[in-house]
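We store sequence, tokenised fold; for instance:
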Amino acid sequence: MSKVYLGLGTNLGDKKQNMLRAIEAIKEKIGKVVSLSSFYETAPWGFDSENSFLNAAACVETAFPPLEVLHLTQDIEKAMGRSKKSVKGIYSDRVIDIDLLLYDNIVFNSPELVLPHPLMTERAFVMTPLSEIAGGLLHPVFRKTISELKQSASGKGVF
């Protein structure tokens, strides 16, 4: 079994319920959720919106390879009502967003998926919940712990 770390975010509708629904769908489709961070209310990042976000991180044990996990998370997003993904840095409000942050200690680069997530260390709304559940985990590219990298993300993607 592999461990995949996911970042979750929502800023539309009943945000807590959206998170809980997404987590249940992850359990059903991807694997066992072995740890889940607290939910953090954060300001939008990369675009203007009147809707704050609820963000979290989860660690999931899975038998699926990275691209299959990506497709399964996209299926969950669509089933929950997400109609489009962010493209080329253009972000918008969303019912749910599920990002693959880390998959074991794999470094992977394809047109569809880059692991570790290339922007995760620039986003406090990702690094804060991730450090809660995986603070001692070593980033496979930067060779620093998630807690160490969280310090450099402070103030970016502010709460």
Notes: Residues 35 and 59 are 5 Å apart (CA to CA).
